[in-house]
Amino acid sequence: MDVVFTSSERSYSDSPRAIEAELVRRGVPIRRRWLLPEGAWAPDEVERVLPGTEEARAAIESADYIVSNTYLLQRFEKKADALYLQTWHGTPLKRIGHDIRVPRHVLNHEVSSREDFRRWDLLLAPNSFTVPYLEDAFPGVEILASGYPRNDILSSPDADRVRTATRDQLGLAGDDVAVLYAPTWRDDDLSVRFGLDPEKLQEAGLDPHTVVLARSHLLTPVADSSTGWKGWRDVTTWPDISELYLAADVLITDYSSAMFDFAVTGKPMVFYTYDLEHYRDELRGFNFDFEGEAPGPLLRTPEELVRALERIGDQAGEYAERYGAFRERFCPLDDGRASQRVIDAVFGASPSP
């Protein structure tokens, strides 16, 4: 069985990695080819293919299964009996697919992406809430509400081990409070990596034992934002964000779907929404009452953010009811068995080569 995997053609990560791991755990003999750029980490046994090359096109066209977490923009002809599994990559707070008001500067990308979704055979949904939005955004594609395989690790018996190992690799001390900062991108300005300025955060009096792990969206430029200040580290190139979710004690985000994944951990979140009205009213719009249902405070300034982090324990109690409702609505399938459900549905309960 020949399977081509890709996680945004950038890393060995996300739901495609979790699906591959479950196939390997079951002992399914497969040829594992990953679309990976030079320098991206992957296990030695993985067969690497450079994205955008003729070799990549040939690999995709000969595959029995294609497993991707977003659009494949490379032109190819899918084999007649191949199955293209699209895992997708987030619960939609904001509009997606055909529902987006497309800015002119991304129009060519959007046209290519619409060509790709017509090749999808099966699309994963993380929860029942997401299903109708996927149906509207990607009409005609079969949808499986399975939960996200990438989140299995967050509730697995290995979670504590992964947390400890990741914190050790990051050089975090035992008393460091790790705050993962993972914002989304801005459709009208792809140059914006972080709305939060580390200098202003430092000036606002961030506790010296707090370390912000800053991870920009993959659609923004890759650049190291580290300043030499212990309180800010750029972890954008860390291969798998799930490991960072486990290593972190708190999440700062804005409108990113990271909030839905991080909720599986039960750890506190705060929302740095300095441009709320612009993002909501002019860029993407929201699919539910974000301001009324967010499982943590919405903050506008670095000073507000620092004060919120100082009282994060009290905040957890204040938002406990909201947080519980949020998890019940968006995370019921994040039970550590999403990969198993996907393998059973796509490859069969006892898949054969």
Question: Explain this structure to me?
Answer:
By secondary structure, this protein is an alpha/beta fold. It is 33% helix and 15% strand. It is built from 14 helices and 13 strands. It is globular, with a radius of gyration of 20 Å. The chain folds into two domains: 2-152 and 336-346, CDP-glycerol glycerophosphotransferase, N-terminal domain (Rossmann fold, 3-Layer(aba) Sandwich); 157-330, Rossmann fold (3-Layer(aba) Sandwich), CATH 3.40.50.12580. Helix 1 (14-25) packs across helix 14 and helix 5 packs across helix 7 (241-247).
DSSP E strands, number: 13
Name of the CATH architecture of the largest domain: 3-Layer(aba) Sandwich
pLDDT averaged over residues: 89
- Uncertain residue segments: 98-111
The first-to-last residue Cα distance is: 5 Å
Following the backbone from N to C, one meets helices and strands in this order, namely: EHEEHEEHEHEHEHEEHEHEHHEHHHH
Residue share in β-strands: 5-15%
Q: Quick one: CATH class of the largest domain?
A: Alpha Beta
Q: Rounded to an integer, what's the Rg over CA atoms?
A: 20 Å
Q: What's the oligomerization state?
A: single chain
According to CATH, the fold-level topology of the largest domain is: Rossmann fold
